[in-house]
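Duplicate of earlier report; Acyl-CoA thioester hydrolase input re-posted below.
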Amino acid sequence: MFVSEKNIEIRYAETDQMGVVYHANYLVWMEIGRTQLISEIGFNYAGLEEQGYISPVLDISIQYKKSMRYGQIATVRTWVKSHTKLRTTYGYEILHEDGSIAATATSLHTLIKKDNFRPVSLSKVDPVWDAKYTEIALEK
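Output:
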């Protein structure tokens, strides 16, 4: 299984008055993780957008396990959980420095043409990228 890892230093602006990371920041970290994974396997999401495609989120599920705080380093682990003709599900773990789990999550995405919002298969847009996702997907 291919897993991308990205360390993120938790900034004060990401916390609430108790110094605990505000829950919505995990979504931003997941996006950073997805972008890192895509880059590590040799592709560029911005390039897809330049070609007129976007990949909106259809669903997100997060399970918060243990609070993170200002000054800590969060490690975002990201992988392709499943990949079908029109949908890709990413899996995530967000870890404390000691390896304990702060949160687990999944996000479901599709690929659409920007000008008409119609779904399109990644295999039609970039067959090499599609093949790589199929290869590394956890669930076959």
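The chain has four helices and seven strands.

Merging into the original ticket.
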